[in-house]
């Protein structure tokens, strides 16, 4: 069972064969000359420099302002979960801190931020005391 593969077909049959080398010039295109050797010498033209006015603008250095913390998330948490009255006041102070930060008023932002932080700490402490007292009361009432 010694089978031979099928013979190859000549796919170029019927097409004219081109001689090796560069393609012939086509009508309507410029004559192409394939010549090898040193490149043609070019004449260097002198460069004429004319004076131009350049305007330089002054450099402006802006230092970024560090924004004060507004304690907004903490204020919302203490308002909803700990002690509502102090949490509400802390939320209002947090919003005022954010507004002062946006307007660039560092002094007011620092003042409102400090007050919001203190009120959040007090509200959280009251909430923890209330939750602890409630847990003790519930656990003692079961016995």
From TrEMBL:
The keyword Membrane applies. GO terms for cellular component: membrane. The keyword Membrane applies. Residues 17-27 have a biased composition (Pro residues). Residues 1-28 are annotated as: Disordered. Keywords: Membrane, Transmembrane, Transmembrane helix. The chain crosses the membrane at residues 71-96, 116-140. It is found in: Membrane. It holds the Pfam family CD225. InterPro entries: CD225/Dispanin, CD225/Dispanin_fam. Belongs to the CD225/Dispanin family. This is Synapse differentiation-inducing gene protein 1-like.
